[in-house]
Amino acid sequence: MTDKQAVTLSINGDCHDVLADPRRTLLQVLREQLSLTGTKCGCNNGVCGSCTVLIDDLPMRACLTLAVAATDREITTIEGLETGGELHPVQQAFIEYQGMQCGFCTPGMVIAAKALLDRNPDPTLDEIRDELSGNLCRCTGYVKIADAVLSLVDADRGQN
Amino acid sequence: MSEILNSKSSYCRKTSFWRKPESSESTRLHVIPLDSGFRQNDDLNLDDDLTLNDGLNLNYGVSRRKFLKQTGGLTFCFAFAGFFGNGGTYAAESNPTPGPAMAEFNAYVRISPDGTVTIINPAAEMGQGVMTALPVIVAEELDVEWDDVRIESSPPIGEVYGDPLFFNRIFTTSSRTVANYYERLRRFGRDARQVLLENAAGKWGVPVAELRTAPSLVIHDKSGRSISYGEIAAFAHISADSAAPGETPGEIGASAGTLDNQPIQFKARENYRLVGRNVPRRDLPGKVTGTAQYSMDARPAGMVYAAVSRAPVEGAALRAVNERDARSISGIIDVIKRSESVAVVATSYPAALKARDRLEISWHEVEGMSHFNSDESMQEHRAAARDLSRNGFPWDVQGDITSLERGQNALEPGTLRDTQGDVAAPGRGQVALEPRVSRDAQDDMSTPADEATRVCSAEYWTDYVYHAQMEPLNAVVSVTDAGKKAEVWAGTQAPANTVDAVAKILDIPGNDVKLNRSLLGGGFGRRTVPSMDFVVDAAWLSKLLRRPVKVVWTREDDLRSGHLKPMTAHFLRAAVDDQGKICAWQHRVASDEAIKLLDRPSYEAFGKVPITSMLGSSHHGMDRSIGDAYDLPQRLVEHIPMDTGVRLYPVRGVGATPNNLAIESFLDEIAAQRNIDPVDLRLRLLHKSARGRRIIETVAGMADWTRARPGRALGIAYTHYVDTVAAAIAEISCDHTSEKIIVHNVWIAADVGLAIQPDNVRAQLEGAMIHGLGYALSERVTIRNGLIQQRNFHDYSVMRMADAPVIHVELLHSDSAPTGVGETGSILAPATVANAFAVLTGKRLRHIPFTPDRIRQVLRT
C-alpha cells in the first residue's frame, strides 16, 4: 500500500529517476525530492495557479497531477525557461514591466503566460486576462502583468 | 551642546501613530522599557562617548561620526540618538575574518577597496520594493554608481535598524517604511559622502570645498585629480589606524570640521540620478527564474517536516488526541503535543499531512468563543453603534454637535429598524432626512439655525476579512548545541518579534537565535504578530527532535488560523443646512481593536486606544492641524469597543478601509439628498486644502467625471491616510443576470510627496486597489461556533485577472518628503464601488463585500 514506485521524469530536458509513492503529486516530487523549489504551492487545491508547469507544452497544475502520470512526458518548470544563460522573453518582459511584487505567484504566472503565447502568439487584452485568470496574484493590480504579456504581442506584430 | 545617554537600557520614543517626532524632541527621548531579545553585545562601549547631534535639526538624530578599530577591519559608525551600541557589533560579526580593508559606515553602508558599496536594508521585502527603494535613498546622497551597490538585509537589531515610530522595532507595516526611513537614510548617505570628501581632502592637502563627487568618485577640478570611493576606503582605513587599537571609539574628519560646525548640504533635487528615476528592483530577476528564496524553500541538511494542528480558537487547550491511525502512516517520526498544538513529524510533508488527517483531536471550549457566530456578532455590533446612550471612546472631537440632538426625529423607528440576518434588508440604514423639530434659540449658538437644517443618519457594515498572502505561512528552525542555539528561516515583517518568540519558547537568550530573513510571499500585516504562531512550532519541535524542522501551513491551516480584520458597524449622523453645509458630524465605529488581543505590548505602548480601528476616521492631519482633511469643525468621532475574543489583527487598510467606506458613502448620500455633485461637495469640504482640491480635480478630469455613460456609472472616494492625499473613481456596471458588479476602470490620483521609485508607487496603488476591490466585492470570512468557515481560495475569493479593472494612475509630485502608499488603494476601493452603484441603480449598498445576494436584496427594495 505504501510501496514506492520508480518514476522517470523528464524535466527541463533532463531525466530524473525518483522513487515515489504513487499518490505523490508532481508538485511534491519537484519541490521535495528534486529540490526544484521554483514551483510554488499556494493552495494545493488547483485554484491559485502558483504551481503551474508545462506538461507537453500545456499548462498544468502540478498540485493536481500525480507524478506517476507525468512519466514519458516533457515537463517544463520555471527553472527550465532560460536557454544558454538567457532569460526567456516572457521572463524579461515580466522584469521590464515589473509584472510582480512578492513574486510567489510569478513562476506560475510566467509559465501560464508562456503557454498562452505559444498557443496564441497574438492574444487580445481580453484573451490575456481570461487565460491568466486561473493564476491568482495578491500583490499586483494585474495591470503590469497584462502589460508585460502585451509587450510581447506588440513585439511580434512589429516583426511581422 | 551635547548630551550623554546610557546605552545599557533600550530607549525608544513614545509617539503616536500619527505624529511625526518633533524636531525639538530629537535629543530628548521618552523612555519605555522594551522587551529584550535584540542582540546585545556588552563588549562594546560606544555609549561612553556618545554625543547626540547638536548642530543639525534632526528628526531621527544622527550623531557625530564614529569609528572603531577592530580586528580585520575598520568600522565607521554613525551612532543614532538614543539607539546605538550594536551597529559596530554587527559590522564586526559580518566581517569576522581579516580580509580586504573595509571602511564600514554606520553599519548601513560599507565601502570596500574594490569599490563595492554595500547598503544595508532594514525593512522586510514582501513585494513592495523596499529592498531597492531604501538603498536608492542612501545611494543618491552618497553619490554612488548604482552598479557598485550591493544590498544586504539587516540583522534584527532594533536599536540600529528599527523604526522609532514602532518603538525601535523593525516593523515593516502601516505603509510607513519609505516615509519613516527617508530622513535617516538620506542623512546617512550625505554624511558618508562627506567622510569620503574629507579623507580625499586630507590626502591631497586641499580644502573640502574644492572637491566634488561624480558617481563613486571624488574629483578635484583644479588639479584634475580624481580618486574612487574604493581607493579612499582603502586609505581611510590606514589613516584611522591612529585611533587606539581595540575598542576605543573616536572621531574622524577633524581636518575639515564642516560636518559638526556647518550644515552639510543635501544634493539638489535637479541633480538626482536615482531618486524618481525608477531604478530596477533588485529582487525581480530571482523571482522570474525561480531562484528567489522564500522560507518555504529552505532545506537545511537533515530537515524533517511537521504538519501542525493548532487551537481552533484563541486560548483553547488540547483535550485529547487519538493518534493510533496516524502512527500507521509510513514515514511518520512522531506525534508530539503541546497544550495549544499537535504536531505530526514525518520524513516527508505529504506523509505528515496524511497522518495529521487521521488524528482525532478535541479541544477544550473557550467560554464565549466556542459558540461565537459572526452573524450574531454583527447584530450586536450594529446595535452598539446605534445605541447613542452608550458612550464611545472619543477619538476625534472638536466643537460641539448638539445640533444633531435637535434632530432626534430623524432616528424614528422604521428608518433604522433592525431585522434578522446579515444582508441589507428593505428600509434599513437609509438616509433619513427630517426637519429639525426642537427649536430653542438659546441652543443655537454653535450652528446656524434655520428651518432647512436637517439631520441625516446612515449605517454601514464590514465583514471579517483575511490576509490571504500567496505564500502559506511557514518556517524552518534548527535548534543546536543541546537546545542552546537556534537558526531560523522565516519571512517576517517584525524580525525582533520572531527572535523574541523563538527565544522565549526555547528559553534561551535572543542573542543565540540567528534569523535568516527570507523574502516574503506577501505579508499584509499577518507576519508581524508577536506570538509568531507560524514559527514557534518549528522551534520547540526542533529542540525535541534535535534536527531542523520545517512547518508549512496548508492554505486551510492558514485560513483556519487566520488573524482577521475586525468586522465593523458604523453609525453616522450629520446636520446639513439647505446649502449642503455640514454643521455637525458624528461617526460611531463599533468594532474590536485589532491589536488589543494579539499584540498586547503595542496596544499598551500606544496607550490602550483603538489605534488601528480608528485610522482614517479623523478629520485632521497627522500634525492635528486640518491638513488635507475635510473641514468638519463640529464633530464627534468615537469608538465603541466590542471585545469579542476573535483572533484579529491588522490587515492592509486596517480601520481606514471601513471608515472610508462609511465617510465617503455618507457624503455621497448627503450630496444626493441636497442635489450637490459629489465632486463639488468634496471640493467644498476641502476648501482649506489646496492639495486635496487638486487631487479631486485631477481624478475627476482623468475619469471625465461629467460625461454620461449609459449602463455605467462613476463613484468617487478621497483619503489623506498617512499624509498621502489620494482620490479614486471607479466606473462600474451591474450584470443583472449574475447580479455581479463589474468594475471596468479605476482612476487614481495621488500626491505622495517625493516619489523615490515612481513606477513602484504606481504598482503599490494598483495592487492595493485590487486588494480593496476584493474587500468590496468578494472577500469575507464567517465564523460559526468559533470556527472560521472558509477553507481555501475556492470559498475565500480574491480578485482574479478577468475581473480586474483597467487602473489608471497619475502621481502628483510635490517637494515634500515621501508619504506612504502601501494601503491607499485598499482604503479607497469599497466606497468608490458603493457610490458608483448608488448612481447606477439609485440603491445604496451598505455592507461589504457586495456579494450577489446582497446586491439582489438591495435591488429588490
Describe the structure.
Chain A has helices spanning 26-33, 89-96, 106-119, 125-131, 143-159, and strands at 5-11, 14-20, 52-55, 58-61, 74-76. Chain A is an alpha+beta fold. In chain A, strands 2-1-5-3-4 form a five-stranded mixed sheet, sandwiched between helices. In chain A, a hairpin with a 2-residue loop joins strand 1 and strand 2. In chain A, helix 2 (89-96) packs across helix 5 (143-159). The model of chain A has no long low-confidence stretch (mean pLDDT 94). Chain B is of the alpha+beta class. Chain B folds into three domains: 23-254, Aldehyde Oxidoreductase, domain 4; 295-364 and 473-552, Aldehyde oxidase/xanthine dehydrogenase, molybdopterin binding domain (Aldehyde Oxidoreductase, domain 4, 2-Layer Sandwich), CATH 3.30.365; 374-465 and 564-859, Aldehyde oxidase/xanthine dehydrogenase, molybdopterin binding domain (Aldehyde Oxidoreductase, domain 4, 2-Layer Sandwich). In chain B, 26% of the residues lie in helices and 21% in strands. In chain B, the strands form seven sheets. In chain B, strands 12-13-10-21-18-19-20 form a seven-stranded mixed sheet. In chain B, strands 15, 16, 17, 22, 23, 24 and 31 form a seven-stranded mixed sheet that branches. Chain B has a six-stranded mixed sheet with strand order 1-2-3-4-5-6, sandwiched between helices. In chain B, strand 25 (713-719) and strand 26 (725-735) form a beta hairpin. The model of chain B is unreliable at 1-76, 78-106, 237-261 and 407-449 (pLDDT under 50). Chains A and B meet through helix 2, helix 3, helix 4 and helix 5 of A and helix 7 and helix 18 of B.
